[in-house]
Records
---
Amino acid sequence: MEAFYSFAQLDYELLAGVADWGSALVRAHERRGGSGPLRLLDVACGSGRFPSTLLKRTDLSALEAPGVEYDLLDPSPFSLAEAAGHLRAPFAPAARYEATLEDLDPKAGPWDVVWATHALYALHPEALSAAAERFVSGLAPGGLGFLAQGARDSHYLTVYRAFLSGVRAGAGTPYLSGEAVADALRVAAEPLGWNVSRQVLEYEHIVGYDQTELLEGYLRRCLFDDGPTLEEMLAAPVLGPYLAGCRDDDAGAYRFSQAVVCLGLTARGEAFPWTAAS
Ligand SMILES: C[S@@+](CC[C@H](N)C(=O)[O-])C[C@H]1O[C@@H](n2cnc3c(N)ncnc32)[C@H](O)[C@@H]1O
């Protein structure tokens, strides 16, 4: 786990820098009239890496007074409890929805902010349009929506496809791509007048050839399978050749290319607060 999270942390650090979150949340609060706490839904909250990284990296002091009513959604009660345990002021743990996004009660909400970060990989393709519709209809007028998810050709999705094909004989469902979720959100949001804007973050996870334990732990978490050894992964059909293609002999390291599709939803006439650096 630790091996993976040393890399996954980079994913969340970059998302913390992709927008000016402090002022974006303040603006969302102002747009609802400024009374009461900001209402936020974290879709597929997992272990709460995104909010815990924001709490470390972003100035959220302007939200201390109104506070943020931070609702969590995840089908896993373990994840709901873990994410709630990471929340600190101004994020105040509020409702917990033990549900998938596609099954979220349409009467729940609305929220001033809805976000889903590295969240919907396991969503079944046939549930995608219902999930996108629930995401968009959960947004209050003037609200802010944000999605971040690995792109089709990024390492997370490519290594999993190679694993299913080379080790699992094609059984299992490939992860859903950021492009697929972003397209479904666009289709659900644009007819309702939401402004949709998109950015792609590109970066690498780099592991030295000599860091074999780290590499094995990292790949196992990418594959959600603690079974295969590094030797087995390197020797497997499809997966082995993919991993060989990530080698950089000059650097003595594997370079795993990541690309993350980021989608922002804002009210008509409101620009999404992407930072200049993103
Ligand atoms: C990688 S984690 C999300 C990470 C998280 N956003 C963070 O900031 O740490 C993916 C989560 O999606 C949840 N999940 C799987 N299918 C889902 C669905 N259809 N709707 C909502 N959540 C789902 C899983 O239970 C898991 O906790």
---
Amino acid sequence: MRRLLAGPGPALPESPAGAPDVDLDEAYAYPAEAAQRAFVRSNFVCSADGAAEVDGRSGPLGGAADRRVFQLLRWLSDVVLVGAGTARHENYGPVVVPVERRERRRAAGLAEVPPVAVVTASAGLDPAARLFAVEVRPIVLTCAAAPAERRRALSAVADVVLCGEESVELEPAMAALTERGLTRVLTEGGPTLHAQLGAAGLLDELCLTVAPLLAGPGRLGIGQGAPWDGTVAMRLIHVLAEEDSLFLRYRRA
Ligand SMILES: NC(=O)c1ccc[n+]([C@@H]2O[C@H](COP(=O)([O-])OP(=O)(O)OC[C@H]3O[C@@H](n4cnc5c(N)ncnc54)[C@H](OP(=O)(O)O)[C@@H]3O)[C@@H](O)[C@H]2O)c1
């Protein structure tokens, strides 16, 4: 992977073709403040025309380099936060961390494996799903309106946390993660949760892979839901490229 536009750091060489492979750990390192407070980074892949899914899945959009970044961002995080729609559509499983990475995480003061935290108003998740048959208990962030029976069933396989009455209020949800020492929050969406995090001013970073294909109209983008009142200004941290994909990292301005 090569760097097309550097943020702070070494100057660009004359010819990107002669540049050494980018150190992705360095390129995606969390800032120091992410150890002190909930720091929310989102990671998405979209087509060049802005689609975040093809026939309900993100898989057709991402190539090998995107999968590498996707995994690395998980390995750098304390917790992977997803909406229940994504967990159901994508049949979410646990975060897989190889032995070598576990050691690096331990040395950096992180748990060996980050848990997955799912946001859901309905608590409509199957306790027998592969997400729950794992070494690290997932966290279910839900609300009082979720049927008590479902909450009870999920509490056998996950830490169930109530954060609101009719829906999950995202500030208390972030506070619940922070209480558990989970401040490097990586959200993988989906578009509905992502838009709410942005609207609430809780999104610190967006890591976006732009895939070299067109998906056509009628697809979800990376934000879904009611229009916002305004916009959120972002600053570009880097642009990386591999083959024909772009890897953009933005920070809230
Ligand atoms: N391209 C990418 O990188 C990418 C990444 C992720 C997802 N996707 C795609 O996006 C699609 C799914 O989109 P989506 O918008 O449905 O995903 P989503 O945001 O993951 O899921 C929406 C669901 O999350 C729960 N939720 C979100 N915010 C909530 C809140 N504040 N309080 C309570 N519950 C809340 C609700 O679950 P309940 O219904 O259980 O109450 C809601 O129905 C899939 O096709 C997936 O493949 C693409």
